Amino acid sequence: MKRFQLLVLVSAITAGAIWYGFFRSRHTSSAAVASLLPKETLVLLHLPDFNRSRAELHETDLYQLWQEPAVKDFLQKPRAKMPSNAAVGPTVEEIASLEMKDAFIAVVAVENSAWRTVGGFRFKGDGAEAEKLVTSWRGKLVGSDAKHENVEYQGRQIQTDTAGIVILSTVRAGQWYFFANGVEQLKPLLDRADGRVKDQSTALSSDDVFRAASQRMPGTYAALAFARVDQLVEKLMPATEPGASDRMVMVRQIRSFCGATSFDGGKIRDTFFVAMPKLAETGNLTRMSLPIATKETFLYAASFLNLTKEMDLSGPPGAAAGWMGGLQSITSALSEKGVTLEEWKSAFGAEFSLVGDWPATSRMPALFATLPVKDTAKANKILMALAADKGDDADWTHEERNGVHYFSTASSGRMFSFSPTLALSDRILIAGMDADSVEAAMKRSAAGSSELAGSKNFQTAERSLPAAQQAFAYLDLALIYTRLDAALRPMLFMSAAFLPGIADTVDLNKLPAAEVIARHLGPIVMSQRYDTDGYVAESIGPVTLYQTVLGVGAISGAATMFYRHQMPPTPSNSPPAPLVTPAESPSPSPADSP
Prior knowledge:
Blueprint (H helix, E strand, L loop, with lengths): L1 H25 L4 H4 L8 E7 H8 L3 H6 L2 H13 L6 H10 L3 E11 L2 E9 L4 H16 L4 E7 L2 E8 L2 E8 L2 E5 L2 H11 L14 H7 L8 E5 L1 H8 L7 H4 L8 E9 L2 E9 L21 E8 L2 H4 L11 H15 L4 H7 L3 E7 L8 E7 L3 H12 L9 E5 L2 E5 L12 E4 L3 E5 L2 H13 L8 H8 L7 E6 H22 L15 H5 L4 E8 L3 E8 L3 H22 L28
Antiparallel strand pairs: 1-2, 1-8, 2-3, 3-7, 4-5, 5-6, 6-7, 8-9, 9-10, 10-20, 11-12, 11-18, 12-13, 13-17, 14-15, 15-16, 16-17, 18-19, 19-20
């Protein structure tokens, strides 16, 4: 019996050790780095395990798309035209050979606009090899003309290289390498790494703000960023500056920001936490506009509008920027009709949604914007005020069908035929690009069921994140790419006929088929909620929503530059020839006579 009990105990200990090893191998933590940094650290970027993150990246849908033979064949020609950086590949392999872990860079102070920066990493294996690689990187960074200086501190040799305004101090401490833009920044780091400072209450790991933010991050991540936004804003834009408080009123409410990127079953996942007071008591999303979405919907987004600032009718028109400026121009027009912000808020709810639908039979997508209706009479009064405005750009017509009010206006555009339409029922306001699509959307809304909500793609994507409270977004990349390919592929080949230079950069005959790209794409989903003392936003997909927005901006800029490069040069303006009137025409000389 005792032998059996001993066997059970040994088995339990072995199983626990195996589980602990697996847990440690699949979880990352910023604790090792945070225990080295001072409590007042302003910014931290942490990369816990380079080799593991690299291996996980190679398993993602995005990397598999990059490895598609058809994609590599298509990109071969444009990549040959791009300047290559031969140092990137070898440097990546050098980092991998070190088995680099806990790489970090941090801003520990900002003094007189000077950023005090420290960083470092742990390595595994031969210290001499690591020393050789670090020496090579240091030489590439500061150049051969840098001045060198060695300083001994507590048995450690700190080397400082100075090249103009660039100052780089480096030191090795066991399996750690540390660097900073000054010797004095390295000394506290060494004191903690060597165990001379054991009081963890002075380290970043014990800071309540950092701990609250890092606890919202996933257990495993490839990269983490943390910043004390309020302190950075105060140091870089003091409130004493004229107008600073008005411009940064919302940013100054943010205490900290923390974000992490991780890999999850071949998908990429972003998690962001913004510590700040809740903007408004709006309740949770109802997504009452979801029935508008169909099985061919590529975009569904819902959030709350904070109308306190954006719709301030007292401000001068044009004072706001971006979409706020457009919203302010609308509210200015309403203000002229005697419609106040309070009337708007009593007529419409704050939950705003966007729906993008793209049937296979249509060349263009249909876009809808919606608002819930709280008071039909007040809402109708506001829309009637808009329809009564007979300006040069809008001539609204109004009709009522089946209890729904429709307000339409014809567009002056010649290339595309749009007739912006508003539809108002007793529960929802729908705005769209033409009367037929808006009427069809209103009928779907009244039916109550949603084709999109019943689809497997949507349900799987929705379950991958916590329930959304303040914002939700769904984007079907495969559907978007398939529709764009069908619409733009003929136009690309037509453009090549007018811009022969395109053939020098890309071979359109090698453009991969839509299904080759689409099979590596899938839905992107984003959810946002308020958790105790801040907003948590998460996004997952083949790329995340935030990466998509940045990528679209970068691609748009690159496409614009490429188009301009392909256009024939504009002839230089030569001085105009003097105008000569018939009366001023010179008489032919005798030599010119036949």
